[in-house]
Write a structure and sequence with these properties.
This protein is an alpha+beta fold. The protein has four domains: 15-204, Thrombin, subunit H; 214-304, Pdz3 Domain (Roll); 307-381, no CATH class; 399-449. Helix content is 33%, strand content 29%. It has a six-stranded antiparallel barrel with strand order 1-2-3-6-5-4. The longest helix is centred in the C-terminal third of the chain and has 65 residues, at 384-448. The protein is extended, with a radius of gyration of 34 Å.
């Protein structure tokens, strides 16, 4: 009995030592990223000079610093971010050694012991022990990004642990932990996905998104049509809208077409369409087959980037503006942010609108029902000095207005104060009259006695 107990104790001690060794092996590559208020978040030296963190914890694009394992603080530059996979890449000048990374997504099993090792300040690393609770194949996150392996964790993602590495028993990094993809659940972005996204961010600062320019939804096809055309699957996706000037429009797509193949693969759902539009194939042509009027038709279309797509939207917006405004190509916005709303034409509004601003139709403007896109033919945005000057003028006007209201409030306060003093004097006079009446009453009582 004692031998069994001793053997189990030795096994636990050995496991404990292995966990300590795993944490010590990975900790030099675990950093703290200061890019949000109050609490830093974790990051990983994924490659020499490149730190990987989670997108949802990077709250600013500038004035970012990295706390290294030896206590040094280094400035960092944001290389790029990808909200769809919740990843961000940062560049630092320090050539510290990178983490030992392995792609074992296919080898992970439910029940495997794993560690999350985070760093949120100068007090050192923290660790959370747990296990793999679920694994699966490639999946699409709710933000739209493709994650190569589904890995859900049964361990605590403490505050600041998003961006920490998932560490195996051997101390090697398996991926990046996050609470931003599973709506609060602890998930891991596998190393293969991180490498793919980091490669894209290092190349262009963003992950390109293919665009064909159609709105669609799944639909079932009658058996007679499926048999006649030798179609595989129960249906396809019906085209509900075609964006003017888009690749689909140029290829000849029409509303009502049923897309049945894209890139030689059948499309029975919108997920199949998204899967066929791989980021690495932006700008290439792709074969598409639709059912139109009971017959099969084929197209070839080039997939645009987002920038090309919004430029085509800009041309449509300009044409609509010209028709609605009697030849005028200007639209006016009420503020310079994404998702601008068109407003009435004014000099002040025109000053804020520039080429590339995104506009949407305002409420109640039936003439702008179709206006949604980027305005293409407008003057370039005014120089920063001019924008600052206009902003300063508006700030001064607002300050003057505030000062006027303050003076009005002070006048009201003075009147109220004077009224209070008058009331106090009246109350004092009334109290004096009461005391006089009491004294007279006492005098009369004594005289009567």
């Amino acid at each position: 009995m004692e031998n069994q107990t001793s053997e189990k104790t030795n096994q636990l001690s050995a496991l404990s030592r292995d966990l300590v060794a795993a944490v010590e092996r990975v900790s030099p590559a675990v950093v703290a990223v200061n890019a949000r208020p109050r609490v830093a978040t974790s990051g990983v030296l994924w490659r020499p000079g490149v730190v990987v963190a989670t997108n949802h914890t990077i709250k600013r694009d500038e004035e970012i610093t990295i706390l290294l394992h030896d206590g040094r603080e280094a400035p960092a530059t944001l290389i790029g971010r990808d909200a769809s996979t919740d990843l961000a890449a940062l560049k630092i000048a320090e050539a510290s050694s990178a983490a030992d990374i392995t792609d074992q997504g296919d080898a992970l099993k439910v029940g495997n012991l794993v560690l999350a090792v985070g760093r949120t300040g100068g007090e050192g690393v923290s660790a959370s022990l747990g296990c793999i609770s679920a694994v699966g194949g490639a999946w699409r996150a709710w933000q739209g990004g493709v994650i190569d392996h589904f890995v859900r964790l049964d361990l605590n993602i403490y505050l600041g642990f998003s961006g920490s590495p998932l560490v195996g028993a051997d101390g090697r990094v398996l991926g990046i932990n996050t609470s931003g993809l599973g709506r609060g659940s602890a998930m891991t972005i596998p190393a293969v996905t991180v490498n793919r996204v980091v490669d894209a961010l290092l190349k262009g600062g963003r992950v390109p998104r293919p665009y064909i320019g159609v709105g669609m939804q799944p639909v079932r096809l009658p058996d007679a049509i499926k048999n006649k055309l030798n179609l595989v699957g129960d249906g396809g996706v019906i085209v509900l809208s075609v964006e003017p000037g888009s690749p689909a429009d140029k290829a000849g797509f029409l509303v009502g077409d049923v897309l049945v193949t894209l890139g030689a693969k059948s499309t029975t759902d919108t997920d199949d369409v998204q899967a066929a539009l791989a980021p690495e194939s932006v700008g290439q042509t792709i074969a598409a087959s639709v059912v139109r009027g009971g017959e099969r038709a084929s197209f070839e279309q080039a997939r645009q980037t987002e920038a090309e797509a919004v430029r085509s939207l800009g041309r449509e917006a300009e044409a609509l503006l010209r028709s609605e405004r009697g030849g005028a190509a200007e639209a006016v916005v009420d503020q310079v942010v994404r998702g601008l709303r068109a407003a009435a034409v004014s000099e002040e509004g025109r000053e804020h609108l520039a080429r590339g601003d995104f506009v949407r139709p305002p409420e109640g403007e039936s003439g702008f029902d179709l206006l949604s896109g980027l305005v293409g033919e407008l003057p370039e945005r005014p120089p920063a000095a001019k924008r600052r000057s206009a902003g300063e003028q508006r700030a001064k006007a607002a300050l003057q207005e505030a000062r006027g209201r303050l003076r009005e409030a002070e006048a009201v306060l003075r009147d109220a104060d004077a009224e209070v003093r008058r009331a106090e004097r009246a109350a004092q006079a009334a109290a004096e009259r009461v005391e006089t009446a009491r004294a007279e009453l006492e005098r009369r009582k004594r005289a009567a006695e």
